[in-house]
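Page 37, continued from 36.
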């Protein structure tokens, strides 16, 4: 088992100027992680011509700390991205594949689509869009295979979030270089029971995000700042692994039972100080994995 942390986990400290992305690599090493996960808007928030230099800088920092780069996570939308120009969006995503290879990352996670806006006049069901989306995903996966980078999508972004939807997409893509990133917390954004969802997608999981949320039902008092609504209107707030309502230990049991023994990356979205939140989360994650 390899433990990683998404550098997005430290985003609140980065925004406050308390840490730089490279400082976060050092913090991850101090806390005992094996690897870090790079993220487009954290590590590549710069002009395109500077991205290769940023990648090399990040890799050098990780190497210095004895850490691997477990994955690169990027946003993508094969319907609406790049002003609706699918070929342009495909080329943009492939450029990130090149960066993943430069980082030495064995995986890259990309989104699929946010879907068409309901009031756009173009709205279609997820299932009807699968053939179009699968073709784009397959093209990226084939390109990435040449670079020895596995591509993945995540249950993320509300439209492509349910376990049944990502399972259908995975089946339609049907490419050996494409798998799923299973985020155990994100299923709650689609109001799906995390344990049941993980049980469905565990056989296809090539990488895992460990995440926890505090959940309050729609009819409860609005918790205010820090919370957001699920697709069904329930309130969610990110928190330290083990402090929320995600059955993290049960999800780990289901993953282990399916034969998963790859990399689990903490993705912390809580309001707690991120360095402490990540530290406590890692301790809990290690404990739960040893017990299942």
């Amino acid at each position: 088992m390899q433990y990683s942390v998404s550098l997005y986990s430290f985003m609140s400290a980065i925004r406050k100027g308390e840490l730089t992305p490279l400082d976060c690599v050092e913090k991850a090493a101090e806390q005992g992680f094996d690897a870090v996960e790079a993220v487009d808007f954290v590590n590549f928030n710069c002009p395109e011509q500077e991205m290769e230099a940023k990648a090399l800088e990040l890799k050098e920092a990780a190497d210095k700390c004895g850490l691997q780069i477990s994955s690169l996570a990027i946003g993508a939308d094969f319907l609406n991205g790049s002003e609706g120009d699918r070929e342009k969006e495909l080329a943009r995503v492939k450029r990130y594949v090149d960066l993943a290879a430069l980082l030495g990352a064995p995986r890259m996670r990309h989104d699929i689509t946010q879907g068409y806006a309901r009031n756009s006049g173009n709205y279609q069901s997820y299932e009807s869009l699968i053939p179009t989306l699968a073709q784009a995903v397959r093209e990226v996966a084939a390109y990435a295979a040449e670079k020895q980078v596995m591509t993945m999508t995540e249950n993320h972004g509300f439209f492509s979030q349910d376990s049944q939807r990502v399972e259908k997409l995975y089946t339609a893509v049907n490419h050996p270089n494409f798998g799923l990133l299973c985020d155990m917390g994100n299923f709650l954004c689609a109001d799906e029971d995390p344990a049941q969802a993980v049980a469905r997608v565990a056989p296809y999981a090539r990488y895992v995000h460990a995440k926890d949320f505090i959940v309050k039902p729609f009819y409860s008092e609005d918790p205010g700042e820090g919370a957001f609504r699920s697709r069904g209107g329930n309130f969610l707030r990110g928190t330290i692994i083990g402090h929320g309502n995600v059955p993290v230990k049960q999800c780990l049991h289901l993953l282990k039972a399916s034969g998963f023994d790859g990399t689990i990356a903490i993705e912390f979205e809580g309001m707690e100080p991120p360095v402490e939140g990540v530290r406590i989360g890692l301790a809990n994650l290690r404990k739960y994995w040893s017990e299942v």
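The chain has a mean pLDDT of 97. Flag for discussion at group meeting. The chain has ten helices and eleven strands.
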